[in-house]
User: Fold these one by one.
Assistant:
Number 1:
Amino acid sequence: MSEPRHFRRILWIWLVVSVVATLLVVLVAAPGLPPGKSSAEGTGQVVDNTVLLGISTPIAVAIFVYFAYALIAFRHRGPELEEGVAIRGNNRVQITWIVVTSAIVLFAAVYGTIRLLNNGSGGGQGSDPIAKPSGNPLQIQVIAQQWAFTYRFPSFGGVETAHLELPVDRDVELHVTSLDAIHSFWAHDLGVKADANPGVDNVAYVRPTETRSFDIRCAELCGLWHGHMFDTGEVVSDGAFLAWIRGQQRIFAPATAQLPPYRTRYEPDPQRRAG
Amino acid sequence: MGSLGVKLAGIVIAVAIVAVTITLYISHYLRSPTPFTAAQTGPQRASLVLGTTPAAGSLGGSKSWVSYLVRENGHWDRTTVFDVPAHSLVHVTIYNFDGKSGLRNPFLSQVQGTVGRTELIDGKATDVINPDDASHTFTVPELGISVPLQGVEDDAKNQCPEMPCSLKQAHTTMTFTFRTGKPGRYRWQCFVPCAAGFIDGFAGPMQTIGYMDGFVHVI
């Protein structure tokens, strides 16, 4: 009995399973993955994850199909084991492997670079960001300290608030910094995350696209109450935001009078008791 | 009973003693610091009297560490876990025997979350203090409460270097009232970097429940 064409069989099985699995992943599973579509950055991350999953699904299928096929087709059935034919290399396989993997890696690099340059993908870009939105974004400073985030609004008299509200459908420019240890500002529902380091101005952009509440967490282990360093923010209409920030200006007028002038970074003087 | 029986009995007793000791130690560790229940002063009303000191002194733990304490019947106890009734007004008095350290974030110099957004400092109503004059804060972030504590003047006479302190010694007195809501466990902390001798003033007692951090149990 002649040996069946294993490679061709594997190829056909892989092709069929890949088409079905990729369609299921891209059209059904991936669109529902975090962070969701509550901001332009979040939507972009869902698209990116969908593209990457769409690429990796046929690769994963190839591994599983070959694994299953080998278990079934190449299972030893005879009475005794015999040494197989020695494999001394296969130019076609090697070239195909190099070309395909190089193409995938190059695509991922180019795609990732383009996406990052597009809007920063919600990540911290340092003090001199490359990917800036056009127009006039709302500037908000995120101030981290052990163990709370506070928020300062330079275009509203430099008022500082204990909670964060954002206007919907408007670009927001977050200046993330810290007064003491290293922290990380992570509004995961909005797909924005930026390290908060003392003496550093780390800029990230976000454009919320729907009104909702969102969670804020510190994503950098920062001491005893790191696990409690969270807050709930709100994305509200433009009018509601203006009403809220005016109210905050009124409520926190006494504290605002005590604040230093707005700066993109703070390096507090050593406290008297601090060692 | 033969010698074997005596040996076995000795081993059993020794194992039992070790097991009980370990159990008591773990139990004590899990329950410490012991919660202090705010005194009921009326329907939906309670009172809590606290103190802050530059050093815990003879009241136990790390004697040189800055600490919050509770005061009951004229005595100080070192605990930072407070039980307060839900849906109630809690009146808090804090005797501060510590000096001025200064706030790292002046935003916290304003009183937040108390009834009337105010506190009394030595009987005088105020809603904000000079950030450099802050000795400590009593802040419960999840309840939106933050109260700065005015420090004792550097040149004040008869200062108390460590507990137990007498109310005849130099101190400032802060009083305020906050309203509790639903039951829950809320962490509180001091936001002034007041841990002398530690890097950035924020290690040691600032990172240890029982000194400058704790819980408010709303029950």
Number 2:
Amino acid sequence: MDVIGGLLHGFSVALTPINLLWALIGVTLGTAVGVLPGIGPALTVAMLLPLTGKLDPVGAFIMFGGIYYGAMYGSSTTSILLNTPGENSSVVTAIEGNRMAKRGRGAAALATAAIGSFVAGTLATFALALFAPTVVSFALKFGPADYFSLMILAFTTVSAVLGTSLLRGLASLFLGLTVGLVGIDMQTGQARLALDFPQLLDGIEVVILAVGLFAVAEALFVVSRKSLLADEIVPISGRIWMTREEWRRSWKPWLRGSFIGFPFGALPAGGAEIPTFLSYSLERKLSKHPEEFGQGAIEGVAGPEATNNSAVTGVLVPLLTLGLPTSATAAIMLVAFQQYGLHPGPLLFQNNPNLVWGLIASLYIGNVMLLVLNLPLAGIWVRLLAIPRPYLSAGILVFASLGVYSLHGSVFDLGTLCIFGLLGYVMRCADIPVSPAILGLILGPLAEQQFRRALAISQGDPTVFLTRPISATILAVAIAVLIAPPLYELLKSRRSKRSSPVRVKV
Amino acid sequence: MDGRRSGTRSASALLVALALVGLGLFVLHQGYSIGVEQTAYARVGPQVFPYAVGAGLIAIGALLARSALKGSWSVNWAETTGTGPTRREFWRHMSSVGLVGSGLVVNAALIAPLGFVIASTLMFALTTWAFGSRRLFFDLAVGALFSTVIFIIFTYTLGLSLPGGTLWGAR
């Protein structure tokens, strides 16, 4: 199916009343969790996974897509008005956005964020529709060895990108891989790491790990720092609409942000955080008012907000065409696919055009809905923040344990949740990012499956990963990602060591 | 930050790193105990990935231990404002963490015998107390109302079965 035909078909799916309703529920829920601190899109989609048993896949994915998108809109609101980014990808927005709000231009900051997100989301969705079929035709050539190498690349980039240090990212990834090993080995039927608990033979549900590492750990972490929780909401003030000058300064950053974000999301390069930093520094360099940066420059809100929405859409390219998630939310959406017995990858476009094109079309519709939900209604969303922190955290914990318990009605799962919550608290205190662990749990078993399949095809010859050109190229990139940063550090320290004695002599 | 506290933070980091090494050794041992007789049939046996993951954990733990000893990585269990006696504030925060944790354990222990509503209410009140709310009875009432509403919504409209408590014969 060509792009235009696919999109038209997609709109005919997405514009049915029931799917419009799912999109509305998704974007509303997404905005809410984006605004609220302590819950994000990954956790929300994870907790809604049990619904997949009752919903048709098209509706479910339209809703999940809306949550992912909506969270990006919502988190910009808290960044601007509260200086507390709801999600990592809005950290940069807080720098200029909160300053603008304090100067009385909060409404304009919210507007440029929402319109920028809309512009970027729409452009990126178009790019998704355009590029996905190309990637699909390429992906059809992929064998198990290539898929394995691709997953290794995703592992390394995600560990390197999400968080502050490659080593700690890898620690998180390997913790996730360990959890992924638990259960019966699919090919030989032998139990691994199950410790003689019959409850562990089926493996550990991703929902338990996600809820433990995100929701429970967040509560434990925040309560250990609660004296620092002195948030101050800046009331929305000033003219509600952007001035002509602000429009003029916003539109270029929107477009640039869209172009920066999409490839970062689409390559297995770990989601939406890095490109927002790139966009921010680019806008500062290009701005005619560089002195305003740090004081509330509108470009510093417009660029990064466009970027993160564009990146989120880009993340859907490897997810839909290769079955390769590059963010925690995408990883949990992959689990949703698995629960429906669907395998994202090249064949999904042929076998489930309703789902794929319906989802893509619904992203356009969701963007329009989000613009309406966020531009005039930003003030209402901010009210959510009036919920006192004790009640918010307590409520999240009740929902968290409810979500885990309703999986199998098992107290054992709740015990596992407590252990993962404690693990997540230790990780947060140690500045170890948690998202790579989620990816490790989900991608680990898949990587093992592809690894063993590749070796079965090659009659046990391990050089298959190096003799296939696609696989060899991908592995080379992965190794570069792993060794480039420490090598750079080494060279830098060696150079400074060499130069320091000279300085002493002088 | 005084010297003793930064020492504690580095020691905690070392502890976390060593725990990773320990986990790696455990995973290696588990891989070893799987048994190897089916390798020939499957080409790559079920123990290959546990070996790789275990070895990875040990290597990462060792490297993290090195950065903990160098002082470039530290683990901070609770953040304090720095005004007033730090030590007391630190332990007050740690006891709050313990309180939230105990709420989760209480919930897990009581959900089957006493039912979802009571277990959740207790967890709710323990959490709000840990977060500094001191209106215990009000919080218990809010928690009870909240969990009852959820219970009704989930059981009667979504058809999810939540435990009503075996102690009084409900399922």
